[in-house]
C-alpha cells in the first residue's frame, strides 16, 4: 500500500481523508462544518459476535461545493469475481456490460452485511449500480464486491484499489465526479421548469417542495438530508428528527442530499 497521507475522500465528503498506510481513518481535512451522519463499513467480526444478519451500512454522500474543481480521480482497473472491472472519466464497465457516464440515468450504492449461508460465512457486501431507465429492464452495470472477490494479482498498489471497500469507494468517487453533477443538474432543472418528478421510487419533487408517504414539505420546511444506516433521511427545519426516508439502494436515492441543496439554494 502507499505511504500515509491525505487523499481525496473515497466516501464523498469533499474533504481529504487520512490514509494511515493500512486503512482509511475518521480524520478529515478540512473537518466538515456539519459532520454527515454516515458510518463506514465495520471490520469483519467473528461469526459468534454477529448480532443482526442483514444490517446495512451507509455509503456517505453529501453535497460538495467543490464539484468541477477537484483533481481528476484516477482510473480503476481490477478483477472482481474473475471479471474485469474498469472505470475512468468516460465509462464504467464490468464483465461484458458497460455504460458511458453521460448515458447513466440512475445510480445506487450501499454496503450490507451478508448473512451466512450457501457455504459462506457472514461478511460485508459492497454494492454499486449504474443504469438507464426503465429501472427493471434497462441496461445497467452492477458490481457486488466481497472480501474474497478480488484477484490479488490484478490489484494495483495505492489507496482505492487494494481492498474491497477501497475499490467500492473508488467507484463512488468516479461516479460522483463524472455522473452525479449532471444528474443533479438535470433533475433540478426539470423541477424548476415546473415538473413533478419521482426520485428514489418514493419521493416526489415538485416546484413547491417534496411529497412522500403522506407527508408534504415545502422547501422552506426542509433542513436537508443525510445518509445513515442504509437510508436517506430528509430532515424538517423545525425539528432535529428526520421526517421522511427512502432506502439508500433505491435508484438515485444517494442524489437526494445534493438535489435538495440545489433546489433550496
Q: What is the spatial order of strands in the main beta sheet?
A: 4-9-10-11
Largest sheet, in brief, is:
4 strands, antiparallel
Please write the string of helix (H) and strand (E) elements: EEEEEEEEEEEHHEEEEEEEH
Mean pLDDT: 79
Protein structure class: alpha+beta
Characterization of the model:
Helix content is 14%, strand content 35%. It is α+β, with helices and mostly antiparallel strands and 265 residues long. It has helices at 164-178, 180-192, 256-264, and strands spanning 5-8, 16-19, 24-29, 56-57, 76-80, 83-87, 91-94, 97-100, 106-114, 123-131, 140-145, 197-199, 203-206, 209-212, 215-218, 222-228, 231-236, 242-247. The protein is globular, with a radius of gyration of 18 Å. The N and C termini lie far apart (41 Å). Among the domains are: 76-185, no CATH class; 196-264, no CATH class. Mean pLDDT is 79; it is low at 32-69 and 153-160. Strand 5 and strand 6 form a beta hairpin. The strands form five sheets. It has a four-stranded antiparallel sheet, with helices on one face.
Topology:
Elements: E1 5-8, E2 16-19, E3 24-29, E4 56-57, E5 76-80, E6 83-87, E7 91-94, E8 97-100, E9 106-114, E10 123-131, E11 140-145, H1 164-178, H2 180-192, E12 197-199, E13 203-206, E14 209-212, E15 215-218, E16 222-228, E17 231-236, E18 242-247, H3 256-264
Antiparallel strand pairs: 1-2, 2-3, 4-9, 5-6, 6-7, 7-8, 9-10, 10-11, 12-13, 13-14, 14-15, 16-17, 17-18
Helix pairs in contact: 2-3
